[in-house]
Amino acid sequence: MIRIAKYIAASGLCSRRAASRLIDSGQVQVNGRAANHIDHVNKHDNIVVNGLTVKAPEERCYYLYNKPVGIDCVCKPQDVSSIIHQINTPVRVFPVGRLDKDSHGLMLLTNDGELCQKLLHPDYVHEKEYRVAVDKPVTDAFLEKMSAGVTYNAGNKLIITRPCRVKRQSDNEFRITLTQGMNRQIRRMCKALGYRVIELQRLRMESLKLGDLPLNQIQNLSEHQVLQLKQTLDSNR
Length: 237
What we know:
Layout: E1 2-3, H1 4-10, H2 16-24, E2 28-30, E3 33-34, E4 40-41, E5 47-49, E6 52-53, E7 62-67, E8 94-96, E9 104-110, H3 113-120, E10 128-134, H4 140-148, E11 151-154, E12 157-160, E13 165-170, E14 173-178, H5 185-192, E15 197-205, E16 208-209, E17 218-220, H6 223-236
Parallel strand pairs: 9-15
Antiparallel strand pairs: 1-4, 2-3, 2-5, 5-6, 7-9, 7-17, 8-9, 10-14, 10-15, 11-12, 13-14, 15-16
C-alpha cells in the first residue's frame, strides 16, 4: 500500500504536489469518506477526485517528443493546437514542464507523476539546454550579462534569473543552459537586454537529448535512460 497522494500521481491524473492540494481542499474521497494525507491505499480502494473515480496506476511510460512551433503544451481537448491532438500513445501521458507555443524541440511525456514532480520542483535542480537565434549579432557584453543573470519584470513581479552557461554558436545564435523553468524566461531575458528571439529550440533536459528525433515524432525512453534521469535528479537535490 502507498500514500494516497503518491497513488493519485502514479495514476497519471496529476503530480503528487497537485494531489496533495486536492486532498487539502477536500476534493478527494477514499471509500466514501474524505481523504487525508496519512491514508495508505491500493488498487482495491475506491478513490474519487472531484466526482471521478481514479483508475489503478497503469504501467509507467516515458517518451521523448520533438514539439513543432505552433503546438500548445496545455492539454485542452477543445484547442485544436493542443499537444494532446499530436500524440498517440497506448496510455494517457502528459507533458512535463513548459515549452511555449512559439518554440520547438525536446519534451518529455509521461504518466509518472512522481518523476514529473521532481522535474518541476525547485528543490531538484536540473539542466535544460537551448539553441537560440536572435535578431542582431551576439556580443561579448550580451553573453556576459546573460550568464551573470538578468533582471526583468513579469507582470507585477520582479524576476532575477540564476547565473547560467551561455556560449556563442554563430553571429546571431547562442546556446544557453538553464537550471530554472520560468515562463518565457529566455525570451524575456533577451528582451531585457535589447534583443528579440527569432527561434528557440530545446536540445536537452538533463540527460535526455533531442538528437535526430524527427519533428512531431515521439520515441520511447529505454530503461537505462529512465534510470539515468532519476539518478541524476536525486543526486542534484
